[in-house]
Specification:
By secondary structure, the protein is of the alpha/beta class. It is 38% helix and 14% strand. The protein has two domains: 1-33, no CATH class; 73-236, Rossmann fold (3-Layer(aba) Sandwich). Strands 1-6-5-2 form a four-stranded parallel beta sheet, with helices on both faces. Strands 3-4 form a two-stranded antiparallel sheet. It is globular, with a radius of gyration of 18 Å. The termini are far apart.
Length: 238
């Protein structure tokens, strides 16, 4: 198989998924594109993972939002990188332009970003579900593809069926602030509570903006008896 791989790589050499540069090894991204990503690896809030500026590399601090918040449905939230010009094209190509090959490198980024969550313990991963009409249009659920790739890396089982959408919602990009909260309020339902009860759940999605969608999912899971709910995304808006 290695001989055939070498022949295929000679005929069709691997290229950077972002800029198209020919790679000597199939690493997904060239070093230049990888260096352009703003990874959340310095100081960040120990609960929500929000990157903290002008502080030492200390992961035991809380951000202002978590200090003010009385309750949160999340145990921990983590994201691999900041959603900016460097990360946007790779994510949008994956999500809307059928570049499903991007799932592998994105999942590897998420695996590293989720180290605090893996240490706390996860029983099952659940991708944020899409309404069936959205799947018919897009042909796949990007969060489900990420879950499959992460499962290959860490072996944690994925539950694709227990969490579903109760109703169709408009895309969150059309809203801001409280409109996002109202758009997804009560939109999710747990179909199989027995499979959720007492479990440590990890919710997977592509981008966290305000967190409204993930919060509604988490609330539905907690009502169904989940022991804890964490979230992990490729990127987050800062």
């Amino acid at each position: 198989m290695s001989v055939w791989s070498e022949i295929i790589n000679w005929i069709l050499p691997p290229r950077c998924l972002k800029c198209g540069k020919v790679l000597s090894e199939d690493t997904g991204l060239c070093q230049s594109c990888l260096d352009s990503f703003n990874f959340i690896s310095g100081a960040y809030c120990k609960k929500c993972g929000f990157p903290l500026e002008n502080v030492e590399n200390n992961h035991r601090l809380l951000c202002a939002g978590c200090l003010r918040a009385k309750r949160s449905p999340f145990r921990l939230s983590r994201s691999a990188c900041v959603y900016d010009e460097a990360s946007k094209s790779l994510i949008l190509d994956f999500k809307f332009r059928d570049k499903t090959d991007n799932a592998g490198i994105l999942a590897r980024m998420m695996l590293v970003a989720g180290r605090d969550i893996w240490e706390k313990g996860v029983d099952v991963m659940i991708p944020v579900p899409l309404h069936y009409t959205r799947i018919l249009k897009r042909r796949f659920n990007q969060s489900a593809l990420l879950a499959k790739e992460i499962n290959k890396l860490n072996g944690i089982p994925v539950d694709f069926g227990s969490l579903g959408r109760r109703r169709k919602t408009r895309p969150q990009v059309e809203f801001s602030g409280h409109e996002r909260i109202n758009n997804v309020k009560g939109a999710f339902i747990v179909k199989n509570p027995a499979r959720i009860k007492g479990k440590r759940i990890l919710l997977l999605d592509d981008v966290m903006t305000t967190g409204s969608t993930l919060k509604e999912c988490a609330l539905a899971l907690k009502r169904a008896g989940a022991k804890s709910v964490d979230t992990l995304t490729i990127a987050r808006v800062v």
